[in-house]
Amino acid sequence: MVVACVALLIALGGTSYATASQLIPSDAVGTEQLKDNSVNSAKVRDFSLRIWDFKTGQLPRGPAGPQGPAGVIADLIPHQSSVTLPANSANGAYTTRSIHVRCASGERAVAGGTFWSSEKNDEQLITVYSRPVVERGRPVGWRARGGSDLNDDRIFTVQVLCATG
């Protein structure tokens, strides 16, 4: 039964390929034959095409808009504060400390981060979190928590970059 089914599939497969290739010669289907089924503006849903659906230079450019006001680069002022993480006497437990630094009055925080007094590869010093301090919807500083499981003191520093205006 299996041999009969395989023979039937081969016979039908070969016949259908030979029939299709003889009825439709290569390069026989082109623009004229596809005209009735072509995609046109009426068949494309509005706002469904994206820029990558078009070739480079295919989309016309619109007129240039009015020039905007000149940009102003604000003065950037760095602020930082540090805390000492004391040596840890318990094996494997982390000692952590939190610290924050604020921008001066009239400044707003634009970026922040942390660093340690040591950067040796074999020391496990972690920053638990590092995030902006926000008051009434305005970033005014930076807060972070650092952790150490070392038997020596380490200094953990938080920085904030503030802009005037």
Plain-language structure description:
16% of the residues lie in helices and 37% in strands. By secondary structure, it is an alpha+beta fold. It has a domain at 76-164: Immunoglobulin-like (Sandwich), CATH 2.60.40. The strands form two sheets. A three-stranded antiparallel beta sheet has the order 1-6-3, with no helix packed on it. It has a three-stranded antiparallel beta sheet with strand order 2-5-4, with no helix packed on it. The model has no long low-confidence stretch (mean pLDDT 83).
Provide a concise account of the structure shown.
The chain has 165 residues and is α+β, with helices and mostly antiparallel strands. The chain is 16% helix and 37% strand.
List the helices and strands and how they pair.
Layout: H1 2-23, H2 31-34, E1 76-85, E2 95-102, E3 107-116, E4 125-135, E5 138-148, E6 154-164
Gyration radius, in Å: 35 Å
End-to-end distance, in Å? Answer: 86 Å
Which structural class best describes the helix and strand composition? alpha+beta
Low-confidence stretches: none
CATH class of one domain: Mainly Beta
The main β sheet shows up as:
3 strands, antiparallel
Count of alpha/pi helices: 2
What overall form do the CA principal axes indicate?
A: elongated
Helical residue percent band: 10-25%
* Structure summary, number of beta strands: 6
Mean residue pLDDT: 83
How much β-strand is present in the residues?
Answer: 35-45%
CATH topology tier name of one domain: Immunoglobulin-like
